[in-house]
């Protein structure tokens, strides 16, 4: 994924300002339980799902739409030293 981001950064100035302002990247580190991570995954999938059919159904695409990469992942970080949480 790092190369994909490098590719975007190298060409972003070739896009109209409107597209450059709309593009985003978001990252955070949080503390979640497995159940919360599952819920978050389902919520993100629901959001992505609103636009998923546009990939295979050109009639569903607004006239000014362009292909946009949507990418999300969530996973536990490398364990830190010490006792594991009870719900591991």
Topology record:
Blueprint: H1 2-11, H2 17-22, H3 34-52
Can you describe what's shown?
By secondary structure, the chain is mainly α. It has a domain at 31-60. The protein is 40% helix and 0% strand. The protein has 3 helices and no strands.
Beta-strand residue percentage? under 5%
- The unreliable regions are none
User: Separation of termini?
Assistant: 28 Å
Oligomer: single chain
Counting DSSP E segments of at least 2 residues, the number of strands comes to: 0
Taken in chain order, the helices and strands follow as HHH
Rg from C-alpha positions?
18 Å
- Number of helical elements: 3
Q: What is the percent of helical residues?
A: 25-40%
Could you say which structural class the secondary elements and strand pairing correspond to? mainly alpha
Overall geometry comes to flat
Outline the biggest β-sheet: none
């Amino acid at each position: 994924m790092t190369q994909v981001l490098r590719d975007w950064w190298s060409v972003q100035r070739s896009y109209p300002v409107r597209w450059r302002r709309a593009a985003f990247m978001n990252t955070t580190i949080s503390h979640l339980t497995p159940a919360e991570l599952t819920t978050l995954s389902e919520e993100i999938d629901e959001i992505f799902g609103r636009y998923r059919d546009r990939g295979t159904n050109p009639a569903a695409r607004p006239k000014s739409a362009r292909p946009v990469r949507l990418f999300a992942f969530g996973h536990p970080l490398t364990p830190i030293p010490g006792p594991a949480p009870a719900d591991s």
